[in-house]
Amino acid sequence: MQVVLVDDEPLILRGMQRVLRQGVAGVVIRSFESGEQALTALGELACDVIITDMRMPAMDGAALLERVHALHPGTVRIVLTGDCDDRTVLRVTPHMHQFLAKPCPPEMLSDTVKRASAMRALLRNDKLWKALGGISRLPSLPAIYLELQTTLADPRASSATIAHVVERDAALTTKMLQIGNSSYFGAVRAVVSVEEAVRRVGVRLLQGLALSLAVFEAARKELLPSWVDLDAMQARALKRLELVRRLGHDHDDIMLAALLADVGVLALAASAPEAAAQIGLRVRAGMALVDAETEIVGVTHAEVGAYLLGLWGLPLAVVEGVAWQLRPGDTVAYDKTPILRLHVATQVAAEQPLDEDTLAAAGLLDKARAIEAELREER
Question: Which of 116, 121, 173, 271 has a 20 to 30 A CA-CA distance from 305?
Fold first, then answer.
């Protein structure tokens, strides 16, 4: 694991080195006191992760990460800073994968680097990995999600304050009112205000909706192949959400994973257009999407999506759910039930076969078959 640290304060650099050497096995660290020094060195050494301060003389962190993004797109780009104005955040957002605030707890810094390593291991196709790191739109957390994160971090934020943020995004407002009035929440009377919808839907699901919608809207700006139907994908995302709830699971992280389970399809389509075209040809010929992905690029959208969400810093339960949604038997999680339920929701929503052996071993096969039968009747 090759990590580059950049900060104009030598004491901070030494502190980060100590934390990472103690917390990350086998890590190799290079430290630099300026962005210029780091850029020169990156031309000569391998780098998996770069962690930089924002405020530095000459070249600041935003300028550095913009250059790293262009020249070394496969490098995971992390900002660690204690002082950053809104304008600088807007400059760096398209070029960073994750933002950490100083003072950063040692375990958080180590965990961030270890997760970056784990996500890197998910994809063994180096060409695809580098392409994913270079997508200009999808890998950066969308602005509405970042704004919600900032608002929700304020313990004084009321539902009215949160609603004010939501109302500035027309697509999110529409979706919030739609979900708030759906049978998913057992609505018995119409919800007509965003503030009431916020209270009914809840904070974590609101974050998931914001992230999901922003990803889909960013994808609409890409030249996606014709076989990628964004409207159908959004409909499947909401169907997965409903099915997870029907299966008796309403854990926030798994609901968020249900919304984002197909994000890897978009990442593949945007980062590897030639491969995506070949995948599309096979899908149109009747091959299952995951089989076509495996044949062409060696991985599926599940691994790609998990990699992307891991870089974004989403909870490990979300990343694991997305990673193992197609192969739940491969998860090493102690409690496999949430991932198994997401697997059922994913496969039933897409009308694909279930992993019956794994579900039977967990005592969930009968429930899964009942859900399939109910859905067939509804269709």
Answer: 173
176-185: which pairs have CB atoms within 8 A and are 24 or more residues apart? 176/201, 176/206, 176/209, 179/205, 179/209, 179/238, 184/241, 184/242, 184/245
Using the predicted structure, report yes or no on whether residue 231 has a pLDDT greater than 90: no
Of 84 and 309, more confident: 309
- Note the pTM of the prediction, 2 decimals: 0.67
Contact assessment for residue 326 and residue 300, using Cβ atoms and an 8 Å cutoff: yes
Q: Are 227 and 284 in contact (CB under 8 A)?
A: yes
Please list the residues that pair with 3 across neighbouring strands. 29, 49
CB atoms within 10 A of CB 358: 19
pLDDT digits (tens, 9 = 90+) for 347-370: 988 888 888 888 888 888 888 888
Of 1.10.3210.10, 2.60.40.10, 3.30.10.20, 3.40.50.1220, the CATH number of 224-379 is 1.10.3210.10
Q: Alpha-carbon dihedral of residues 314, 318, 322, 324, nearest 10 degrees?
A: 130
Q: Which residue has the higher pLDDT, 112 or 29?
A: 29
**Can you tell me whether residue 219 is helix, strand or coil?**
helix
Residue 344 pLDDT > 80: yes
